[in-house]
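Researcher: Here's a chain I'd like modeled. Treat it as a single chain, no partners, no ligands.
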Amino acid sequence: MTDLGTLVSLLDFTSLGDDDTEATVDDLCRRASTPLGPVAAVCVWPRFVARCAENLDGTGIAVAAVANFPSGDDGVEVALLETEKVIQSGGTEVDLVMPYRAWLAGERDVALDMIAAVRAACGSSVVLKVILETGAMGGADRVRDATRDAIEAGADFVKTSTGKIAVNATPEAARAMLEVIAESDRPVGFKASGGIRTVAQARDYTELAAVIMGPVFLAPATFRLGASSLLDAILRESQAD
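Model: Modeled as a single isolated chain. Structure tokens:
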């Protein structure tokens, strides 16, 4: 069973509300350093990256921001502008929504071209996580195909969901993605995100990853849990122990 401190260390502590303010972000950054240790990253809108970078300077906590989020429909030019803003503002990770509607319509080159362009903009020092929006895929075979395409185009991580549609992360989608990662000829990380609110749910994903990829995979360089309320659940459980 994954211990609570490890869960915290794997967490992308996230706030992507439409009404987020600088005060919201300041509170997120303050809470990111916990009695169980720091989270892996905070994840925010691009406009808040500079503030996060300032708040988290010296903590070792990464600053992540979204691009082409949440619809996946903004186009490569917008995605690149957002990515460049994130990097220039001090961000070290970009969570890019794959143009999943185009991909599902058979326009796979649209998705591959965007991922490749953002990969190039990120260079070697910025982590690229590609959000597949698996709840829209309609089955494990499509999830596997989308995972392969994202990896081929240069994703450092593949991520389940935006958390903004009816169906988000599921163990079935996670299994499909992890199985493709296991077959990949290069190291690729996995991020479960969307609807993960309880310690039990978080452990479902860590235990699945450990079975498929081995326990060593459960490190921030290769495994993340994206959530906004999970940290509170972890801390409550730690206080109850």
